[in-house]
Specification:
binds guanosine-5'-diphosphate, Rossmann fold, about 500 residues, 8 strands, 434 Repressor (Amino-terminal Domain), Four Helix Bundle (Hemerythrin (Met), subunit A), single chain, alpha/beta
Length: about 500
């Protein structure tokens, strides 16, 4: 996500950090680097100008104080972080539920933006929170839109109100109105109305959207934007906003090679927040949009909060509690526990996507390793562990040559694969022991941001950068005689 932009921000800060005390010229230099990074990423000129003006004036105000701090570059970093959060909308904005149900959500957007897929993602998300959504098929224009919605509804177990066949037949305004009435009668607390998109924002599209809006008085009008389109998407959003209006934006296709232009410009240009983001074709590739987490990713700090939330969702509470108890009581982490982790990881979806949330994931070496990461590795590893007996899983020390050969044959792998898994597992076990006793360290390049922790029971999956896992810091590091430097070291 926004890899090129993120790499440019990280380069700019790497050079600022090497400077120590900052002069006004240093600020001009980083401002100019950030300016060209934003322009290269297709961010609207007005937003870039705002960003750079603010950066300069905020750093000017505090330059004297900046140089008194132990790390002036970090203070500039904080200013840039808060500006990014600001242009991304400040804080997450949730759906406003109607006082008297049902809450009516109208989905609008151009054809191909991912609107119909989004109806499913949104309904699935709301259903998981205990709501009882109903989908209404008011896109009667696009060929097969009604059928597509019915398939989506069926796949997530959400009913679809579709009295008309579509493909140009039926009145979308009447369907929308009848859909809301149906939801009231059947006590659905949320109605999501799918409307027709067009290839561009034209008068006909706006007129129909206005008529549906006036007929159903939605609590939320969401405008769906394909993030890969960049500034063009921002211009059409602006035109739609002026013609019809909307309450919030949904960004789709953030998993693609979107440069960041749409995400970073749209809130400033339209004055409306980004409420949700879709990051793939699966129904679960969807979440609330958090400006602070996005800023953190752009600055190379990853998104540990989302990772932790997803891990929490994937581990059933019993497994998580058992692993936490084991960790706290000093019991050994076994291959059975490891198997439970692998199961949970599989539930969390694409490993490359998850690892992309780790701090530094966009940096050179880690990025290369992520690109080469084999998603099938998880299944292969699982098959090795499953071919072991309970005794072997509990105590890998019993794994002699003949046992290893049997496991390799049983899992269709090589003995060297079994050896490598056992070695890495033994190392991980040692790291966990040392972390528990306070002597362990995170692998190099994988620092957790302040206040953050790896989710309980989580460790790096097999096949990922392992080089650091074995390098446990046992040696006492020499400490500086300078109190300020020593404070920084600790
Ligand atoms: P609509 O015309 O706006 O209703 O668009 P669709 O929902 O039919 O989506 C158009 C295409 O984009 C389909 O192939 C979807 O699978 C794909 N798509 C939708 N959202 C995403 C997303 O977040 N990421 C990716 N990679 N593809 C998406």
């Amino acid at each position: 996500m926004f890899e090129s932009l993120s790499a440019k921000f990280q380069d700019a800060f790497a050079s600022l950090r090497s400077k120590g005390r900052l002069k006004p010229g240093d600020i001009d230099e980083i401002a100019s680097e950030i300016r060209s990074a934003l322009l290269d990423s297709d961010v609207a000129l007005s937003v870039v100008d705002f960003f750079i003006d603010q950066l300069k004036s905020r750093t000017d105000e505090v330059l004297g104080d900046l140089n008194k701090s132990t790390n002036p570059a970090n203070a500039v970093f904080e200013i840039v972080n808060s500006l990014l959060i600001e242009i991304l909308g400040g804080s997450a904005r949730r759906i406003r539920l109607a006082k008297k149900p049902p809450t009516v959500i109208l989905l609008t957007g151009l054809q191909g933006a991912g609107k119909t897929s989004l109806v499913g993602k949104l309904a699935n998300y709301l259903k998981a929170q205990g709501n009882t959504p109903l989908l209404v098929a008011s896109d009667l224009q696009r060929p097969n839109a009604v059928t597509q919605l019915q398939v989506v509804g069926e796949s997530i177990g959400v009913p679809v109100f579709a009295p008309e066949p579509g493909n140009g037949v039926g009145d979308p305004v009447k369907v929308a109105k009848a859909g809301v009435k149906f939801a009231e009668d059947k006590l659905h607390n949320i109605v999501i109305v799918d409307t027709a998109g067009r290839l561009g924002v034209d008068a006909q599209l706006m007129e129909q959207a206005k008529q549906i809006r006036d007929a159903v008085s939605p609590d939320e009008v969401l405008y769906v934007v394909d993030a890969m389109v960049g500034q063009d998407a921002v211009r059409t959003a602006q035109a739609f906003f002026e013609g019809v209006g909307f309450d919030a934006i949904v960004l789709t296709k953030l998993d693609g090679d979107a440069r960041g232009g749409a995400a970073l410009s749209i809130t400033q240009v339209t004055g409306k927040p980004i409420m949700f983001a879709a990051t793939g074709e699966n129904v679960t590739d969807f979440d609330l949009f958090h400006p602070d987490r996005m800023a953190s990713r752009i600055l190379g700090l990853g998104d540990i909060q989302t990772l932790a939330e997803q891990a929490k969702g994937a581990f059933d509470s019993d497994t998580a509690a058992k692993l936490e108890d084991k960790f706290a009581s000093g019991e050994d982490f076994t291959l059975d526990d490891f198997l439970a982790q692998l199961e949970a990881m599989k539930k969390m979806g694409s490993m490359t996507k998850l690892l992309g949330m780790i701090p530094g994931a966009n940096s050179g070496a880690m990025k290369k390793q992520l690109e080469q990461f084999d998603e099938g590795e998880l299944v292969k590893t699982q098959s090795i562990v499953q071919s072991m007996t309970p005794l072997e899983r509990n105590d890998p020390k019993v794994l002699n040559g003949s046992r290893r050969l049997r496991i390799a044959n049983g899992s269709g792998r090589q003995v060297s694969d079994v050896n490598s898994l056992v070695d890495r597992f033994t190392q991980a076990q040692k790291v966990m022991k040392q972390m528990r006793s306070g002597k362990g360290a995170m692998p190099p390049g994988m620092q957790m941001p302040p206040g953050m922790q790896m989710p309980p029971g989580m460790q790096m999956p097999p096949g990922m950068p392992q080089q650091g896992a074995a390098k446990v810091v046992n040696k006492k590091k020499s400490r500086s005689g300078n109190p300020a430097k020593r404070a920084l070291e600790s």
